[in-house]
Amino acid sequence: MARSVTTQRKILNTAAAWAIGLLIFFPILWTILTSFKTEAEAIASPPIFLNFDWTLENYAIVQERSNYMRFLWNSVIIAGGSTVLGIIIAVPAAWSMAFVPSKRTKDILMWMLSTKMLPAVGVLYPIYLLCIQLGVLDNRLAMVVILMLINLPIIVWMLYTYFREIPGEILEAARMDGATLKEELLYILTPMAVPGIASTLLLNFILAWNEAFWTLNLTSVDAAPLTAFIASYSSPEGLFFAKLSAASTMAIAPILILGWFSQKQLVRGLTFGAVK
Amino acid sequence: MATQHSRSAARIMMAPAVFVLLVWMLVPLTMTLYFSFKKYLPLRGGDLGWVGFDNYVRFVTSSAFWPAVQTTLVIVGGVLLITVVLGILLALLLDQPMWGQGVVRILVIAPFFVMPTVSALVWKNMFMDPVNGLFAHLWRFFGAEPVSWLSDASLASIIMIVSWQWLPFATLILLTAIQSLDSEQLEAAEMDGAPPLKRFYHIILPHMSRAITIVILIQTIFLLAIFAEIFVTTGGAFGTRTLTYLIYQRVLESQNVGLGSAGGVYAIILANIVALFLMRIVGKNLDA
């Protein structure tokens, strides 16, 4: 907003906003700091903030004791796989809805949205039973498929809102200039669609990474991602603050970094285009 | 521009997405409905036949039902109240001119990207632990007796953890809404001498009302389903058993599938009522 304010006002705003921002961020900061302490320093009274002997031993211990890499790998495969699979299925659908809309397009979109509203616990047992019967309980591929289905409505919706912003006139102009369908797709539509697809990819990767209902209930050892890895610290290992912090930091660091790039898409993706 | 040919192509392009979602919705739903009319105990005799609406009646008349409804309402209502009110205030603040706005935004949004099991466990152990938690240190510093948060103030603790996770979402969406406000309108009001509070009530708040509604509806759908936060903190003890958690316990812990499925159907109906309102708003936006 281009309103002029006094410097004094601006200083006040800045101080207030930073204080609140740091307060909200503090639990994350504290977790990261604690991960570099020894266990004794982590529970020292009064708490130590910065002047401790920084150590990496917690990271080594967590990795050694619980094979962190395996959980990380599962998270990458499940979140990445489900997102890519979802995009592959959703791009053609969103594309056709955006460029060849019919009377039923809106109904289909709304129906897809309604499947997202289905409470997971309402279908927990059927899915659990199906997984057992198909022999895919605690199976990575099954988790990829399930998380893909969970996020597919959001993926279709996000892509649809992005594609709809590509003006149809450009296509017509290209056609008048004699572009073939292949050229039209390759040189005009694809470059315009890439940013939207990338944003969708990013947000849904984050959502799948943090998903903690199906991953907790349907995995145990082989397919367990980081959500389940952390849940296993619930007790009594969780009382070793430094190790809990190291494990937590490793579980959230990749997503925190990705998340910072996806602020804008977050709003659009999670409100189904209703707030932009 | 849509020819007959492109129409049929469009249908084919849509088919896979529609098909997988249709299967994903219909198969488990049908199974849940089917189980809900049966006495089905996988570990104690298996399928014991049809029982009509018995499970539905037993689910709502069990002693755990009303407390669970109450817990659910308190958690959803409490988190909504906190996140919406603080979200509005925070969005207003972040909209003001300041130095380092981008960094503050990042700090505020960060909790949303923390996976639920991590935030629940970090809060539970490192902040709310009655011996070594940071709150215990703080309480002792002021000479007070540390509180066993998750057993003595369990609901408030859960509300606090979940609010911390969802405040960024509310703030971000409300901030986006404020930023789309036409600043000329505000300037005109300012020049006419409207005090800040009046400007807020008559210009900003009406402009945000749609975004607020959307925040409430979307959060309600997610909050009705919170699971991990309870799973790793109290495990449903100390009066924190929500409807979702109750159904989970019936179905997977005590393996009373018929009863749990009836509960699942109730949960589905409840979520659909909320969803109906949300879809109406989103649908309106689609026509525009």
Automatic annotation (TrEMBL), chain A:
Q: Spell out the GO cellular component terms annotated for this protein, sorted alphabetically and separated by semicolons.
A: plasma membrane
Which Gene3D superfamilies does this chain map to? MetI-like
Keyword DNA damage part of the UniProt annotation: no
- Give the main localization category: membrane
**Topology of the protein relative to the lipid bilayer:** Multi-pass membrane protein
Which InterPro entries does the UniProt record give? BP-dep_ABC_trans_perm, MetI-like, MetI-like_sf
Query: Can you say where in the cell this protein is located?
Result: Cell membrane
Q: Which domain of life is it from?
A: Bacteria
The ABC transmembrane type-1 domain is annotated at 72-262
Gene Ontology biological process:
transmembrane transport
The answer, when asked if Transmembrane is one of the entry's keywords, is yes
Q: Which Pfam families match?
A: BPD_transp_1 (PF00528)
Task: Tell me the PANTHER family matching this sequence.
Answer: INNER MEMBRANE ABC TRANSPORTER PERMEASE PROTEIN YCJP (PTHR32243:SF18), MALTOSE TRANSPORT SYSTEM PERMEASE-RELATED (PTHR32243)
Q: What is the name of this protein? A: Inner membrane ABC transporter permease protein YcjP
TrEMBL record, chain B:
Q: What is its main location?
A: membrane
Asked if the keyword Transport belongs to this entry, the reply reads yes
State the organism of origin: Pseudoruegeria aquimaris
In terms of InterPro entries, this protein maps to:
ABC_transporter_permease, MetI-like, MetI-like_sf
Q: Which family does the record claim for this protein?
A: Belongs to the binding-protein-dependent transport system permease family.
- Location(s), subcellular: Cell membrane
- PANTHER family per record: ABC TRANSPORTER PERMEASE PROTEIN
The UniProt keywords, alphabetically, are: Cell membrane, Membrane, Transmembrane, Transmembrane helix, Transport
Q: Gene3D superfamilies from the entry?
A: MetI-like
- Protein name listed in UniProt: Trehalose transport system permease protein SugA
Q: Which residues form the ABC transmembrane type-1 domain?
A: 69-278
One family from Pfam that matches here is: BPD_transp_1
Query: Its topology with respect to the membrane?
Result: Multi-pass membrane protein
Its GO biological process terms? transmembrane transport
* Annotated TM spans: 12-37, 73-94, 106-123, 155-178, 211-238, 258-279
A GO cellular component entry from the record:
plasma membrane
Q: Which residues form a coiled coil?
A: none
